[in-house]
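Hi team,

Filling in the usual template for the complex we talked about on Friday. All components are listed, including any nucleic acid strands or ligand strings, so the model treats them as one assembly.

SUBMITTER: L.P.
PURPOSE: interface mapping
COMPONENTS: two
RESIDUES: 911
SEQUENCES:
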Amino acid sequence: MTTLLEMREITKEFPGVKALDRVSLSVAQGEIHAICGENGAGKSTLMKVLSGIYPAGSYDGEIYYDGALAQFKTLSDSEDRGIVIIHQELALVPQLSIAENIFLGNERAKAGVMQWQETYGRTEALLAKVGLRDNPGTLVDSIGVGKQQLVEIAKALSKDVKLLILDEPTAALQENDSRKLLDLMLGLKAQGVTCIIISHKLNEVRYVADTVTVIRDGMAVSRLDARKGLEEDQIVRDMVGRDMSARYPERERHAGDIVMQVDDWNVWHPDHAERQVIHNISMNVRAGEVVGIAGLMGSGRTELAMSIFGKSWGRAISGQVKLHGRPADLSQVDRAIDAGLAYVTEDRKSLGLVLDETIRFNTTLAHLEGVSTKGVLAEARETEVAERYRQALRTRTPSVMQQVGNLSGGNQQKVVLAKWLFTEPEVLILDEPTRGIDVGAKYEIYSIINDLSAQGKGVIMISSEMPELLGMCDRIYVMNEGAFVGELPAAEASQERIMSLIVNE
Amino acid sequence: MPSSEPTETGLKSYLKAHMREYGLLFALIAIMVFFQIVTGGTLMRPVNITNLFLQNSFIIIMALGMLIVIVSGNIDLSVGSVMGFIGAFSAVMIVEWNMPIAVTIPVALVMGGLIGAAQGYWVAYWKIPSFIVTLAGMLVFRGASLWLLQGQSVGPFPGGFQLLSTGFVPDILPRDATSGIAAALGSRNFNVLAMGVGVAAAATIVWLGLRDRARNAAYGIVGEPVKFFWARNAIVLGALLFLAFKLATFRGLPNVLVTMGVLIVIYSFVTQNTVIGRRIYALGGNEKAAKLSGIKTERLTFLAFVNMGVLAALAGLIYAARLNTATPKAGFALELDVIAAVFIGGASMSGGSGKIVGAVVGAFIMGVMNNGMSIMGIGIDYQQIIKGLVLLAAVIFDVYNKQKQG
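RESULT (copied from the run log):
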């Protein structure tokens, strides 16, 4: 079997981070090659290098494609050679029809005039190939995510694709849609199309893949032949088996009474009425306890947190939340705050901070009552509060009048924490509290979390980094596809156990 | 006491960071000096200064509400029409229905609030872009005033109503008592109240500024360099005292100036020093973050429009009183002057920034240019072109500054 693609010793660095470290990948003609790895392992970066999104020259190493050295400068360079990448977030224009989307940028036109018959005719042929029977004139907006995924593949086929790359194609799909998609991949393989699938769902990998490459921390750690039968344990160990080099501050573990109890929580998608996103979740947090929620991206962790916090996400929310044993009214954000809940958002820039404003402005924003009398702000008190939290959290800034947009990620996160600490919550939900911040700042954030638990607050920590959860939490809920699939006390938890709960559903 | 005088580079960087605020002040001064010279001194005659206030009062009053709407991340294109409609409505009430003024004014203000509420409802709770909702409002209320007035002018108003716009606050001292000062100054009279208010306002501004500096210093916050503080205050004080003197030597304090002054103080206070003001900036700066901080963003947006409606109604009353008649054309295209004033004053199109003082200065820049160019006899054609270019220049200046900082 000939080799279609060979990536040799690819190294890609971002300021301060080595995203890829001498990664080699070899894909044979006509096979389905799976790339597995945790979030942030470097899978998507590798594909961006391949497709020219990171142009030749911005990385070290060589790419041989179809027998020759390839140096793609842009995405269209690689597309011209038959490499098509379909991203997790679909690149379709919802307001255009299926046919218009498929030929977007590649319009069937003569002298600038659209040839609609040809466009529609060819679209129908392409849709038949991917097993869709929708009218080419249907707006993409009005078909489900599963079908949209197929439209993307039809679009790829319209470009005479030789190497099709699917980046977590089933992340947003229901069970039967996923199966259809995987069958389609096998069908394409039979027609000679080579596929790379990025996935961490091992059942899917086992179903379609011929070869598996596992990437961890920017390095290719193993290459397995799936045709000889896959050892799932082996893959899981390879995916998570990094050293616990990051350190976590010590904490005295002493869980008190239950502060927050969630029962039978169900949430539906705000836009897609038929899609249930959170299924029957029940959980609790004790005073002084740090509880983790582990799960992959898209498993519904953020949706769970936001739906509890003032019904900020989703619709038709049902279930009950009790605080200190009494039913709590969390129906709006301000009520949730009054009830003693705080939610530190995952995306601090777009959801957590007003970037153009000062540290002081942001620190007091969720609890302006605390720095005002009869609706009039007491500037001195406000400065005092901001200053107090700046010192307590060791936010590095010349003054609290600094714009938060100018701070580093770690310091921005401290401002967000300060904002929520000032509301004096009983329970804090931290959504990816250390994402995108450096190791030193992470340690400081961990220390702050430990201080909170020492004060008897309940902490819920959502994180994609399993070592972090294992290092910090007393108990870990494992979440997958909107439901809890397991609950592990810290003593029994390990990365392997969490991963196998996720992949085995 | 050791002084913490910043170094030369500190001064420079401070000036850079606050280029906009100083630039605005200097632009106003430069424009006034320019027109003072080219009009041969007419611009700053007491009667013209008084006129400047009377002519621009309704724009400034609406700019206060517009600033809040724009800071919240919206826009209101309907204010000119609403203002015209309320003028027409009050004219019909007073002239045709013989309602007393004491009833008409509150009813008109409530009506303005209702109009604002009707528009704000769609913007806030249905998330319909304010541009579209208020564009519709602009057409609806322009049509409504035509319908209400049957295409005719309605007037004149009884004398009491006109005082709203053209009246002056009576002096605290009888004229005889001040005739000596007037004679010494070579003017016909001297209004002690106007001068007194000017001095009091100047003193208050300095006192507030010093108090602020002291508080900042207590927390180690580096504020405005001391030189800048005094230079800026000297200019503002000089201008205030100069204006007060001019007013004093004419007919004193116009009623409308008092209304306007009180409103400016209230709105500055509300936007800068209250919880609700703070929340409006947060809403405009990052709506999602504001919402997740427990701020009722919908209600705030709604209230911003209600407030705008009330102020547009007040402006409509003042305008009608000034013309002494309500015409179907009243307020036509005025929303553009109001919006221009707010943007010249430094507000950002995307919301979250802008100050009341800026909007007021912006309105005066527009007002002085209108007035000066009219005195010079420049045609309306050129006037429009020049005003348009000034607006563009102001915004380009803003963007340029931001890029240089970023």
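MY TAKE: Residues 1-8 of chain B have pLDDT under 50 and may be disordered. The CA atoms of residues 211 and 217 of chain B lie 10 Å apart.

Thanks, L.
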